[in-house]
Amino acid sequence: MINLETPRKFRAFVNQAHQVAAEMLRPNSRRYDLAEHEYPVELDMLAAMVDGLGASGTGSGAGASGVRRPSAGEEGVVNGSNLSSVLSIMEMCWGDVGLLLSMPRQGLGNSAIASVASDEQLQRFDGVWAAMAITEPDCGSDSANIQTTARLDGDDYVLNGEKIFVTAGGRCDAVVVWATLDKTLGRAAIKSFVVMKDTPGMTVERLEHKLGIRASDTATIRFENCRVPRSNLLGTADIDKGFAGVMQTFDNTRPLVAAMAVGCARASLELTRDLLAEAGVHVDYDRPIHLQPAAAATYLSMEADWEAAYLLTLQAAWMADNAQPNSLQASIAKAKAGRTANDITLRCVELTGTLGYSEHELLEKWSRDSKILDIFEGTQQIQQLIIARRLLGKTSAELK
Ligand SMILES: Cc1cc2nc3c(=O)[nH]c(=O)nc-3n(C[C@H](O)[C@H](O)[C@H](O)COP(=O)(O)OP(=O)(O)OC[C@H]3O[C@@H](n4cnc5c(N)ncnc54)[C@H](O)[C@@H]3O)c2cc1C
After folding, report:
1. Which residue has its alpha carbon closest to ligand 1 atom 43?
2. How far apart (Å, rounded) are the C-alpha atoms in residues 24 and 297?
3. Are strands 156-167 and 130-133 parallel, antiparallel or unpaired?
C-alpha cells in the first residue's frame, strides 16, 4: 500500500537537496537567467558531489539518472530511485529549474538510458551526460512521425536528420536520439540510439534564446551520415517489440518533469505568503476561506491545487518503483503539475503586484520558467489525450 509521507530513509537526502538548492542554486538564479548560454561553473562541483552520493549508495536517484525500474514480481513495497528522484528534483527546482536542467550527468537522456538500457549499456554509459533528442522541425507532439533515419550498415547504424530544442544539447557528452529504422513501418520502427558528442557527422548548429529556463542551453543538432555502433541502440532492435520500448521512457520521465513543476510552484507559494504577510495579509488555516481577505483565499485555493499535484507526482513515481504500470498516472501527474505550476506562478505575480512583476524578486522568473514544464515531455493537451485514451480504452488511431 502507498504511504505518501516522505520515507524516513530519504529524509536526510531530501534535506541535503534543499540545502543545496538554498545555498547554491537560488543565489545563482538571477545571474544565469540574465547571462543566457553562460556555463554555470558552480554546477561542476555540485555534480561531483551528487556522483559521490550515487557511488556511495546513499543518493541513488539524486537526479534524472536514477530512474531504473525493478523487475515485476519483486516482493514487498519499495521506496526506490524513482521516488527519491522526484523528491530531490522538487527540492532542487525550488532552487532553480534551469540550473537543475544544466546539472552534468543528470539529463533527460540519462533517464532514457536508466529506463531502457541493458545492464551492459548501463555500465558502458555510466558517467556520461546525456541529452534527449526527439523533437524535429516537422515532428513535436506527434512523436510517431519521426523523420530522422537510422540505416544498418555493417556493425554501425548511419543516422541522418535534424533534432531541435534539445535541452543540454550543447553541453552534454552524448545525445539519446530517436530515429526510425524504416519509415514504411510506422511507429514500430522507431528506436533510440546513444550518440557520443564527438561522433563525426553530428553537428550542434545553434542555441536558442528563450522565455524561461535561460540557464539551460537548448540546441539544434544535425546528423549527416553519422555512424553509431550497433551496440548503441537502446533496448531491442526487434521491430515486433515496437514503439512501446521507447515510449516506456516517458513513464519514468514525466513524473520527473511533474516534480520540477511542483518544486517551482512551491517556491512561488512560499515567497508570496511572505510578501503577503509583509503587506499585512495573513493566511489563516483555522478560518473558513470565505471569511478571509481575497488574497488569502486565493492563496489557500492555490495551495490545495499544489497539494494535489504533489501527491499525484509521488503516486506516479511510487508505482514505477513498485513495477506497476503507470503510464496513466505519469500523464495525470504531468498534466496536473504542469498546469498547476503555470497557474500558481502567474497568479503569485498577480497577487504581489509590482513586486511580483519586477526583477526585485524571482516571482516573474518562476512564471517564465514554469511554462516549459507544461510543454516538454508532452504538452498539456497531449497528456489529456493520453489520459482520455487510457480511460476510454481507445487506441491512438481511434482518438487523435
Ligand atoms: C525550452 C524547450 C526545451 C525542450 N527540450 C526538449 C528536449 O530536451 N528534447 C526534445 O526532444 N524536445 C524538447 N523540446 C521540444 C518539446 O518537447 C516540444 O516543443 C513539444 O513536444 C511540443 O511539440 P511542438 O513544439 O512541435 O508543438 P506541436 O506538436 O506542433 O503542438 C503545438 C500545439 O498544438 C497542440 N497539439 C498538438 N497535437 C494535438 C492534438 N492531437 N490534440 C490537441 N492539441 C494538440 C499542442 O499541445 C501545442 O499546444 C523542448 C522545447 C522547449 C521549448
Report:
1. 381
2. 33
3. unpaired
Q: With residue 48 as reference, give the H or E element that holds it.
A: helix 42-56
Which of 68, 78, 84 minimizes the C-alpha distance to 117? 68
Residues with CB under 6 A from ligand 1: 108, 131-135, 140-141, 165-167, 210, 213, 218, 372, 375-376, 379, 381-382, 385, 400
- Per-residue confidence (pLDDT) for residue 233, from 0 to 100: 96
Q: To which residue does cell 514544464 refer?
A: 373
Residue nearest to atom 30 of ligand 1 (CA): 140
Whole-number pLDDT of residue 56: 53
- In the numeric block, the cell 503555470 is attached to 342
User: Distance (Å, rounded) from C-alpha 66 to C-alpha 263?
Assistant: 18
Residues marked as catalytic: 377
C-alpha grid cell, residue 224:
549527416
Tell which residue, 115, 228, 114, has the closest CA to residue 161. Answer: 228
Give 10-residue mean pLDDT values along the chain (400 residues): 84 93 97 96 87 57 57 70 93 97 92 90 94 96 94 98 98 97 91 96 98 98 98 86 77 95 98 98 96 97 98 96 94 98 98 96 98 97 97 94
Which residue, judged by its Cα, is nearest atom 16 of ligand 1? 376
Q: Which residues of 352-381 are buried (b: 16+ CB within 10 A; e: fewer)?
A: beebbeeeebbbbbbbbbbbbbbbbbbbbe
Domains of the chain: 8-124 (1.10.540), 130-241 (2.40.110.10), 244-392 (1.20.140.10)
Look at the chain and count its residues: 400
Helix 294-321 to helix 81-95 angle (10° resolution) is: 150
CA of 143 to the centre of ligand 1 (A): 9
CA 49 / ligand 1 centre spacing (Å): 33
